[in-house]
Amino acid sequence: MNQTVTTTDKTKEQVDCLLIPLKDRNLVVPNVTVAEVIPFSHLLTTNASTDWILGRLDWRGTLVPALCFELLNGNPAPAPNPDARFIIVNGISDHPQMPFYAILVQGIPKLMHLTEGDLQKVDAVGMGEFDQLAVSIDGVTAMIPDLERVENVVLTVI
Predict the structure, then answer these.
(1) What residues have CB less than 8 Å from 2, skipping those under 6 apart?
(2) Phi-psi region of 118 (alpha: psi -120 to 50; beta: other; left: phi over 0)
(3) How confident is the model at residue 11 (pLDDT cuts 50, 70, 90)?
(4) Can you give the pTM of this predicted structure?
(5) Residue 43 sits in a domain of what CATH number?
């Protein structure tokens, strides 16, 4: 039996993303950017000359620099939070000295399945130097961070 199947379903390409809570804003990044979400843990000291490098984490046998995105972006540091965690970010520039870095977050990231149409560009007050774009997702404002720039500045201070 020979059948022809036609479809009129115009499936939009979805990207799995994480909505990541910070102190007073959210970040949105592709899910593949984040290797793992881990509980807040003790940090090893570092000789970094900047306050936004919080220290280093021993993650799976690799020392990973941990940073505070709010401080890096010129905003005040978040208050201590029992829901704080770290996201382990996959390096995007393939630097052997820093394959991963960690960002302090203020809760559990939320998985979202987004299409390009789900993101509406908005004007946002207080965009920082490391925010690439402000978007609205179902009425929630989020920043798309410039992760390449973040990674490059972390490399200069570790």
Answers:
(1) none
(2) alpha
(3) low
(4) 0.87
(5) 2.40.50.180
